Amino acid sequence: MATFQYNALDAGGKTVTGTLEAGSVPEAITKLKGMGYFVTSVGQARGGKKASGEKPGEKAKPAAQKKKKAGGGGGLSFSFGAAKIKPKEMTIITRQLATLIGSGLPLLRALKVLEQQRKGAAATVLARVSQEIEQGALFSEALAKFSGSFPRIYIAMVRAGEAGGALETVLSRLATFMENEAKLKAKIKSAMAYPVLVICAAVGILLFIMLKIVPTFAKIFEDMEAGELPGPTLLLMKISNLLLTKFYLIIIAVVVLVIAYKIAVKIKTTRYLIDALKLKIFLFGPVILKTIIARFSRTFATLITSGVPILQSLQIVRDTVGNDVFAKALNEVRNRVREGEGLSGVMLRTSVFPPMVTNMIAVGEETGAMDAMLEKVADAYDAEVDAAVSAMTSMIEPILIIGLGGIVGFIVISLFMPLIKLAMSLSGGEGG
Prior knowledge:
By secondary structure, the chain is mainly alpha-helical. The protein is built from 18 helices and three strands.
């Protein structure tokens, strides 16, 4: 028997250090697991007896690291990337995990309970996370191997929860954060559903008119020998003929535009210009801006409340804000704060954040309650998003109706102009 020193986490996520007697490192790990601990490291205690096949002071490498070294990192990450939990299901799992841990259930047991209740990708990911923990990895380290399901904010908050022994609290905050994010996205989607439906219906009607009605009138004009047609009528006929004979060119043009856009958003310079343009689009710009501010405030507040260091929080928010204009500003803010400047002053100088945000953060810095101030900002901008979305939809409806009415009116007038001209010439001939 030899004496081993260990570092581990208990069921509540608190760090535990101590020594125990065992015949080997695997036996020590097994004993610790039996005690309900999650092992982070095990090594020969100084001055202790030497275990067979091990040098004094040698620490056991986690099994996950051994596997990675033996099989190579590429294949391992590839297999992990195949399974991905959907955001909605991830929110439910996080809430349930917080409840189970809060009820006194060890983390590993709680994960296995959730695994048994799930199917498909969720069950696969939970099983592999449990396997990593069984092999000695921390919960946050296991989650980091599934970045497709667990974003950076999730992993950073869990790591902070592990360090502070407040895993249950952090998971509850994460679930609330993801629920708020889902509500915000649902608001935008529901608000855009009606305009998109109207636009699709309008396009369908216009295509029917151009492909069926206009060619019929063109045949009538040809049979009637209406002579030279008015300019608007000729333009309408040419557009209709283009759609009938070279519709594939329009499809190719649309595909080229989509591909060009996808390429442009991958290039740093053009992506920045596109994101800057999005903030200035009529009607949509204010909604996008308020949505970004609400997401920034909520994410930043959640990270700080969970104990994530402010510089790391700024880096995570920068990478998840979803707009290069704000990402660039946050990168500058992070660099200045790292040099010792105050957060609110730097944010004010970027000219990107509204005065309300910088003033609230300044108050938070002075009172030491920045997380509370950021939560208030997030709540305020959530309400402003609702108001902006309602205003946008109420304005889009008449704009679409007027636009569609104008196009249909142009088509009707263009088609009836030759008929009116012909009728007038016939009535003039009879009068003569």
